[in-house]
Amino acid sequence: MGENQRLFRVESTVPSDNDKDLRRLTDRIREETFTNLEGWYRLGLALLKTGQSEKTKQVYGMLLEQETHESKKARIYSPLGLAKSDQGEYKEAMTFFEKSLEI
Prior knowledge:
- The chain has 103 residues and is an all-alpha fold.
- It has a single domain, classed as Tetratricopeptide repeat domain (Serine Threonine Protein Phosphatase 5, Tetratricopeptide repeat).
- Helices cover 62% and strands 0% of the residues.
- The radius of gyration is 16 Å and the shape is elongated.
- The two termini are 27 Å apart.
């Protein structure tokens, strides 16, 4: 994505809806993966939910670097705070939470 050579955007499709088990699984995944979000924001929260805090920080760090509107940064600071908190970095987490609340 962009100039970051380590991030790739992958789009995939389910080959067929005829498999009932596969259909139930994909429906469940869709329900649990933040349907109100799109793209990198959705991926970042999915990573956070699965305990991959370091990858979450990478995704949201990249989003933070690219966001130019201060008002839109609140939705980036909060997940960064959660990722820091999961890693026991509570002071840094509070900084992100405070920035989010200020906005």
